[in-house]
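Annual report, structural modelling task.

Input specification for the N-(iminomethyl)-L-glutamic acid complex:
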Amino acid sequence: MTATLLTGIAELATNDPARSTPSDPLALQYDAALVWQDGRIVWSGPADRAPAADDRIDAAGRAVLPGFVDSHSHLVFAGDRTEEFRARMAGERYSAGGIRATVAATRAATDDQLRSNLRGLVEEMARQGTTTVEVKSGYGLTVEDEERALRLAREVTAETTFLGAHVVPPESADDPGAYLDLVTGPMLTAAAPYARWIDAFCETGAFDADQARSVLEAGAAAGLRGRLHANQLGPGPGVALACELGLVAVDHCTYLKDADVAALADSGTIATLLPGVDFSTRQPYPDARRLLDAGVRVALASDCNPGSSFTSSLPFCVAIAVRDLGLTPAEAVHAATAAGADALDRSDLGRLVPGSPADLVLLDAPSHVHLAYRPGVPLVAATWRAGRMVPPVDGSNWQPITHG
Ligand code: NIG
Ligand code: FE
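The model returned the following structure:
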C-alpha cells in the first residue's frame, strides 16, 4: 500500500514511552519526519535520514502532535441550553437538574436528528485535532432511549459508555430505588452490547456513593469497565470510591481533599480534568500542579455536552490548563493525548512511534506551545486518522473516528 512521508516537521511530539520524562513528557524530536503506511506509523526520525515514500508532504517548519484523545463526552443529545448558560453567566448556579431538559429533548428526537447532531460534533472535533472520542449515553434514561443512544454512539466510536445513572428522570422522582433497579437490570442488559464502559454521576443531586458502587458492580458483572463522574460540584466520596475500585479513570476532580489526592497517587487511577466545565459553570479550576506533584496521572478531556461544557475543543482545554490549572504546555498536550488514551486503557493511541496508528495533527505553528500561547486561534491545519485526512477536504466519505 501507499507509503506517505511527512517531512519538514520543526517539532514532533512523539509521547514515546521509552523517552518521555517529567521534563519532556512529549519526548520531542526536532527537524523530524514520519512515514506511515496502511494506517500505521512505520518510521520516525531525523528528516535528513527519512526514507523515500510514494507520497511526500512538506510540513514546512510546522509542529506535529498525536491526535487528541478526548476521553469524556456526551454527544448523543438534542436541543440546547443557551438560556441556562446565559442565566449562569448572570449569576445562577449550575445544578445537575438541567440534565432533565436535555433528556426531554433527546427522547423527542428522531434517530436521524440525533445521528446528525452527533456526527456534526465528531466532525467539529476532528477539525480541532481529535482523532479518538469516548461518547456516553445518559440523556435517554429509559431502556429504549439508552440503548438507542449507545447504538448511535457505536456508529462513531468504539469507546462508548453507558450512563443510565446520570440523574433520576422525572417519572421516577418518587422512587429512585426503582430507577436504580432499572439501570442495573433491564437497562444494563439492553445497553451492554453497545457499550465498553459504565459510568455514574456520583454527586449531590444525582447518585450517592452506595448507588454508584452498585451501578459499577452491576456493570462489571455484565463485562463493562467502570469510570466515574466525581467531585465536580463539591467535595464528595466519588474519587475515593473510584480509587478503591481501581478504576482506570475518575473524571472532574474539581474539589479534592488531601486524602483524595493521596488515594489517586496510590491507586494509579487517572484524574481526568474537564476545564471546559469549570469555565462554563464559573467554578474554581482544579489544581493540576498539585496532582502531578503528588505523582497522580492527569488527563484532559472536553466533556462536550449541552449543559456544563458545550465545547468540542481540546486546544481550548489545553490553553485553560496552562493558564489556570498550572500545567506546562507540554504537560497539557501530553494530558490531552497519551494520558487521554491511557484513561481509556488504549495505550496503543496518543503516541507517534513505529506501530502506532497514524493519528496525527499538523499545527499551523512551529511548536505545541502555540496551543496555549495563541488561545482561540484555529491552529489545526490538518488531522489524519489511521493515515486518512479527517474530515475529508471535500466533505465526502465520512469516516467514524474509531479503531475498533
Ligand atoms: O459531565 N456531570 C454530569 N454530566 C455532565 C453534565 C451534563 C449536563 O449538564 O447536561 C458533566 O458535566
Ligand atoms: Fe460528563
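The chain has two domains: 3-66+351-389, 69-343.
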